[in-house]
């Protein structure tokens, strides 16, 4: 765990109801930030809020569907009313569909792009408008993926959405720098979570792990340092960066 101090910061974490988003929220709260936990499942969010309150952190649950502009506006407003001006956004909500490119239907494509790209754009721009209006600057962290930088089978929509998210990060970094808003991306490699643990126990999963230069899956805690760096003043001269956290997967030998 880093000792980075985020006291006085208000973080808004999308997709905080489970997986990496839950871990990011807990990490930021342990560093002293007050955290708005946002996603579609209120009960799961409340459970995470209770975990955070269990170590005397401060967190609230905010219902949010990132694909719906009105929901995004209401969630950001609710978070600021309750906690104060947002200074850190972790744009983490994301979905994937594992399907061959020629078998993917329009609804499946739209679900992935609407959540991972349009959703991230809606939340980032809404939060940034608040930061600009209040004039305090801030840090926006988009959770991309190494699949936004390389290719993988049966994830065309997902990889396309993450590549676009990388470009969205750079576009917003350019336009928002004048307002002291930094926009960076974290690009995790394969991180072990509840939903992929079973796959990584299979022969195909084990073969994939052998292609990672560090020969192991990432753990959520491996993202703590990079997350806290991007959230904090330690990255004050970084904007438009894409940090790969992947055990060297992107530099694997051909
Ligand atoms: N795990 C990995 O190895 C890995 C690697 C690289 C990148 N990533 C990225 O990391 C992020 C989190 O992944 P994960 O593995 O933690 O996935 P996960 O366990 O499936 O969590 C996804 C989160 O997104 C939320 N979400 C989905 N649709 C939403 C919507 N329309 N509105 C609001 N929230 C929504 C879900 O909450 P609700 O269902 O409650 O709405 C859930 O909390 C994703 O962006 C993913 O692409 C993960």
Detailed description of the structure:
- This protein is α/β, with parallel strands linked by helices.
- The protein has a single domain, classed as NAD(P)-binding Rossmann-like Domain (Rossmann fold, 3-Layer(aba) Sandwich).
- It is 42% helix and 15% strand.
- A seven-stranded parallel sheet has the order 3-2-1-4-5-6-7, sandwiched between helices.
- Helix 1 links the parallel strand 1 and strand 2 (34-39).
- The longest helix is centred in the middle third of the chain and has 29 residues, at 106-134.
- The protein starts with 9 loop residues before the first strand and ends in a 9-residue tail after the last strand.
- The mean pLDDT is 97.
- It binds NADP nicotinamide-adenine-dinucleotide phosphate.
- The site of NADP nicotinamide-adenine-dinucleotide phosphate has 28 residues, from helix 1 and helix 4.
- Residues 9-149 form the Ketoreductase domain.
- Keywords: Oxidoreductase.
- It comes from Skermanella cutis.
How would you concisely characterize the structure shown here?
The chain has 254 residues and is an alpha/beta fold. Helix content is 42%, strand content 15%.
- Please provide the count of β strands: 7
- What is the level 1 CATH name? Alpha Beta
Strand order of the largest sheet: 3-2-1-4-5-6-7
The proportion of strand residues reads 5-15%
Q: Could you tell me which ligands this complex binds, including any ions or cofactors?
A: NADP nicotinamide-adenine-dinucleotide phosphate
How does the major sheet shape up? Answer: 7 strands, parallel
Structural class: alpha/beta
What name does the CATH topology carry?
A: Rossmann fold
Shape: globular
């Amino acid at each position: 765990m880093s000792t980075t101090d985020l006291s006085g910061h208000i973080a808004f974490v999308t997709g905080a109801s489970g997986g990496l988003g839950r871990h990011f929220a807990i990490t930021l709260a342990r560093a002293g930030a007050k955290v708005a936990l946002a996603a579609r499942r209120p009960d799961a969010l409340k459970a995470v809020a209770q975990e955070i309150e269990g170590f005397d952190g401060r967190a609230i649950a905010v219902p949010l569907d990132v694909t719906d502009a009105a929901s995004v506006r209401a969630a950001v407003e609710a978070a600021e009313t309750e906690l104060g001006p947002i200074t850190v956004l972790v744009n983490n909500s994301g979905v994937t569909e594992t399907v061959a490119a020629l078998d993917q239907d329009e609804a499946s494509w739209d679900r992935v792009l609407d959540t991972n790209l349009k959703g991230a754009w809606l939340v980032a721009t809404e939060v940034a408008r608040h930061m600009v209006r209040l004039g305090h600057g801030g840090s926006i962290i988009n959770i991309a993926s190494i699949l936004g930088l390389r290719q993988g089978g049966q994830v065309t929509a997902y990889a396309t959405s993450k590549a676009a998210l990388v470009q969205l990060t750079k576009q917003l970094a350019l336009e928002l720098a004048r307002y002291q808003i930094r926009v960076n991306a974290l690009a995790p490699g394969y991180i072990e979570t509840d939903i992929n643990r079973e796959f990584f126990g299979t022969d195909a999963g084990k073969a994939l792990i052998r292609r990672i230069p560090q020969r192991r899956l990432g753990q959520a805690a491996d993202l703590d340092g990079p997350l806290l760096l991007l959230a904090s003043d330690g990255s004050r001269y970084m904007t438009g960066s894409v940090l790969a956290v992947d055990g060297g997967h992107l530099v694997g030998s051909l």
